Amino acid sequence: MRTIIIGAGEVGYHIAKKLSDEKKDVVLIDKDPAKIRRISEDLDIQALLGSGTSPRMLRRAGIEDAELLCAATDSDEVNLIACLLARNLNRHMIKIARVRNEEYVQEKSLFSKDMLGVDLIINTQEMMVKTILSIMEIPGASEVIDFLDGEMKLIGFLITHDSPLAGKRLGGPAISKENLLVVAIVRGHKILIPSGADTIEPLDIIYMVVKKNDINVTLKLLGLPTKPVKNIIIVGAGSTGMAVAKALDNRSLNVRIIDPDGDKCKNASTLLNHVTVIKGDAADRDLLREENAGDMDLLIALTGDEESNVLISLLAKELGTKRTITRVSKLSYMHIVSVIGLDTVINPRMSAVRAILQYLRRGKVISVSPLREEQAEAIEAEAMETSDIVNAPLSEVNFPPGAILGAIVRDGEVIIPRGDTIVRPHDRLIIFALQDVCNQLECLLTVKLEYF
Predict the structure, then answer these.
(1) How far apart, in whole angstroms, are the C-alpha atoms of residue 294 and residue 244?
(2) Domains and CATH numbers, the chain
(3) Is 72 within 8 Å of 349 (Cβ atoms)?
């Protein structure tokens, strides 16, 4: 499967890196010689210097034989023109376009099969807002990923020193009794696919599969509050901050938005009905005190300056804010800022990477979500009739080490798999796998050749 990526920014680079690590056939095009040089030095892929809107360059990249084109430059116009050219040069390929301008996004007919034929639109702002709202709904969560249209959730929780699970063995009575399903543990820079012999340690981030209806019960078992978020400060009245403020504007919440720019504050006051707009610098400790940051349930730092976001979030935590959500643009910073005590770190580009991965995985994959620095993936897939995973006890299935089948959903019932469990065709599977076994897992999920 040949993939052509246009744009070597954060999104393009990280998709290319992931595919390079998996030994996939990738061609990347960018106009910046420095970026092409970096790609050539760092990754085992073909890097071409040129424009993604050049038919000659696209042909040179092998577009006639490619299965997927991902246009991920910072220019909406370049991305859309690239998809238009791809449509004419290879009508059967999958086309993904990163689009930030809301005017374009609202013109649904523009992306139809009769026009550009774009299969997936990546709008990182819309994805970030959705991510923030999901995290807000579950107190204490550091990450929330939906499966089965939200009926099942993968939730990341930071284990504190006084957590009821700290020091508990996964196969021990404290966890087995409650039937808690821990499918991954992040410990420092490493992510573990655990067994029953592993122990949960303080400062681990554990990922659990939880039914939507069981969230409050799970929170109580973890010693976390179940009271919903009520008092919120948003820092930054830019496009993302305003999008979050608008999403919260008509809810019965106490929401404030802070920005030092007078024009942005005037615009916010005009567009928002119930959100209090404050002109000021949220990095000023006295201002945060005046706005009762210590009594706030949540502070969301969404300025365009990630250093400011980190500083403001740390100030808020020091003053007593219960939780923070911090926007960090560079993926390489995410682990560092998590270690220094911030609750939840979100990255706009990671949202784009998650959406794109769904189209890069073979088998009937419904969604893919990379976990923590992309070392592992959470995959939702449908069991296909002639794949090797069906119609045999799991103990006899050649499941790759470093992967775990976390849950099976059959006719609306969630099954926690064991060695004698048999996967049936069309079961919905939730699987967790380390990156280096994803190729083996794809083979397990793919229809065998004799099916054809």
Answers:
(1) 21
(2) 2-122 (3.40.50.720), 140-221 (3.30.70.1450), 231-351 (3.40.50.720), 358-451 (3.30.70.1450)
(3) no
Question: Strands 141-147, 152-158: parallel, antiparallel or unpaired by DSSP?
Answer: antiparallel
Burial of 106 per CB tally in 10 Å (0-12, 13-18, 19+): exposed
Distance CA 177, CA 301 (A): 39
Per-residue pLDDT of the chain (452 residues; tens, 9 = 90+): 789 999 998 888 888 887 887 788 999 999 999 999 999 999 999 999 999 999 999 999 999 999 999 999 999 999 999 999 999 999 889 999 999 888 888 888 888 877 888 988 988 888 889 889 988 988 888 888 888 778 888 898 888 888 898 998 887 766 766 667 888 888 877 888 887 888 999 888 898 888 888 898 888 888 888 888 999 999 999 999 999 999 999 898 999 999 999 999 999 999 999 999 999 999 999 999 999 999 999 999 999 898 899 999 999 999 999 999 999 877 666 666 666 767 788 887 777 777 777 676 655 677 777 776 567 888 888 888 878 888 889 888 888 888 888 888 888 787 878 888 999 998 988 888 887 787 788 778 775 433 32
- In this structure, which amino acid lies at residue 203? L
Question: Per residue, what are the HEC states of the chain?
Answer: CEEEEECCCHHHHHHHHHHHHCCCEEEEEECCHHHHHHHHHHCCCEEEECCCCCHHHHHHCCHHHCCEEEECCCCHHHHHHHHHHHHHHCCCCEEEEECCCHHHHHCHHHHCCCCCCCCEEECHHHHHHHHHHHHHCCCCEEEEEEEHHHCEEEEEEECCCCCCCCCCECCCHHHHCCCCCEEEEEECCEEECCCCCCECCCCCEEEEEEEHHHHHHHHHHCCCCCCCCCEEEEECCCHHHHHHHHHHHCCCCEEEEEECCHHHHHHHHHHCCCCEEEECCCCCHHHHHHCCHHHCCEEEECCCCHHHHHHHHHHHHHHCCCEEEEECCCHHHHHHHHHCCCCEEECHHHHHHHHHHCCCCCCCEEEEEEECCCCEEEEEEECCCCCCCECCEHHHCCCCCCEEEEEEEECCEEECCCCCCEECCCCEEEEEEEHHHHHHHHHHHCCCHHHC
